[in-house]
């Protein structure tokens, strides 16, 4: 079934570097024992600095590669709320062992793009509890200059 034939919605994003994930949907659906789905091509790819409106809220798009090469997060400056997906978690960071993932890129994106948003920014991760960037700056072991020895 062609999803575009049953909806008037535009498919927006992700960042173009994640296109290979969308093209791999048929194989991924078979791998998980699901009905095969067709590859998707967005009507518009998201890019760093884009703005996406959801109702009355406008979200800024930040490209934060590492978990995947095209991972994006969404920031609402007015409410100081970040939708971080699988980039950062309370006490952790996203996996980078997926195809084209890169742990160093992930940490760099967090330090260069997310932490400068401010300590008071609350983030909603893809899994687990909410946290703030300030708490993670101080307590997240992946963001410290020296990793703890376990």
From TrEMBL:
Required cofactor(s): Zn(2+)
Domain of life: Bacteria
Domain named Metallo-beta-lactamase: residues: 4-127
Gene3D superfamilies assigned to the protein according to its UniProt record, in alphabetical order: Ribonuclease Z/Hydroxyacylglutathione hydrolase-like
Record key words, sorted: Hydrolase, Metal-binding, Zinc
Signal peptide: none
InterPro entries: MBL_Glyoxalase_II, Metallo-B-lactamas, RibonucZ/Hydroxyglut_hydro
Protein name (database record): Putative metal-binding enzyme YcbL -like protein
């Amino acid at each position: 079934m062609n999803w575009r034939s049953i909806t008037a919605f535009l498919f927006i994003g992700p960042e173009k570097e994640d296109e290979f994930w969308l093209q791999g949907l048929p194989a991924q659906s078979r791998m998980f024992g699901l009905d095969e789905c067709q590859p998707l091509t967005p009507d518009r790819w998201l890019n760093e600095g884009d703005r996406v409106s959801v109702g009355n809220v406008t979200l800024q798009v930040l490209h934060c590669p590492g978990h995947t090469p095209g991972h994006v997060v969404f920031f609402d400056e007015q409410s100081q709320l970040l939708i971080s997906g699988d980039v950062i978690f309370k006490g952790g960071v996203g996996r980078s062992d997926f195809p084209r993932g890169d742990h160093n890129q992930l940490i760099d994106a967090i330090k260069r793009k997310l932490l400068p948003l401010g300590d008071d920014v609350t983030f909603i991760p893809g899994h687990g509890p909410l946290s703030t960037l300030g708490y993670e700056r101080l307590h997240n072991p992946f963001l410290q200059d020296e990793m703890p020895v376990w």
